[in-house]
Amino acid sequence: MTISTGDASITAAEAAAAKPVARALPYRLASFAVLLAVWEIAAHCAHLRALPSVETVAVVLGEEIRDGALPFHLAVTLARVLVAFLVAMAGGVAIGLAMGRWWRVDLLLDGWIIVLLNLPALVIAVLFYVWFGLTDAAAVGAVALNKLPLVAMTMREGARALERDYAEMAEVFHVPRWRRFRHVVAPQLVPFVLVATRSGLALVWKIVLVVELLGRSDGIGFQLQLYFQLFDVPRILAYALAFVAVVQLIEWGLLQPLERRVLRWRR
């Protein structure tokens, strides 16, 4: 048996993790191909204006990209998603860890977290627009507030699940506080951070579109609302598919590789 250390072990682990990814790609592509085929068949059989063909939507998508409208509105929406996500993650992680660490903080904030979890996103968005006006700050704040309680609840459970034995062992060996956090606490919290990240992003994508539809003059949500009024289904589908494609690329190109990298110690 050969045991490798250092960079070699990391390289071997990354190579092992890359094999399932390569094997999964054909299945994912085949799944999307089947979806497009079913869509095309249904469009030709139905002959409805509300169900355009794949070719029609592809042509419209190309036109919107060439005109620059779709890239502009997509960039605006992604910027709002990024800011709202970072604000909610920072606040949610801090609040969740405090609630899991100190029981008094948990008792003080638990009721507020439950209320925010059950308050409809639409209500929060409408109230923020009424209180702060139809501004980007109100839109981003409403989205962040909708996501924050979910992150806080996840991180609270993560803080409660920390193994006390590891912390006690670190104290016995007089491990410095920063190294204790880096090598003992952080690896145990990483899975909870990843869960909060993925579930939070899934929520933010949806709420941003609703907020834009209600009170903004740009972004994917605004465009969907505009083309809904015009009953322009090809453009509705084109903008929706472009947004979904970007979200999927972020999932495959950023979140999943990041998850494999930070959890490689498990292998």
Folded structure, characterized:
With 267 residues, the protein is mainly α. It contains ten helices and no strands. It folds into two domains: 1-51; 53-266, MetI-like fold. Helices cover 85% and strands 0% of the residues. The two termini are 17 Å apart. 27% of the residues are buried.
CATH class category name of the largest domain: Mainly Alpha
Q: Which superfamily, in CATH terms, is the homologous superfamily of the largest domain?
A: MetI-like
What order do the helices and strands follow? Answer: HHHHHHHHHH
The overall average pLDDT, rounded, is 81
Unreliable segments of 5+ consecutive residues: 1-10
Q: Let me know the number of strands.
A: 0
Q: What is the overall number of helices?
A: 10
Shape: globular
Structural domain tally? 2
Helix content: over 70%
N- and C-termini, Cα separation: 17 Å
Instruction: Please outline the major beta sheet.
Output: none
Radius of gyration: 23 Å
Class derived from helix and strand content: mainly alpha
Within the CATH hierarchy, at the fold level, what is the topology of the largest domain? MetI-like fold
CATH architecture group name of the largest domain: Orthogonal Bundle
Q: How much β-strand is present in the residues? A: under 5%
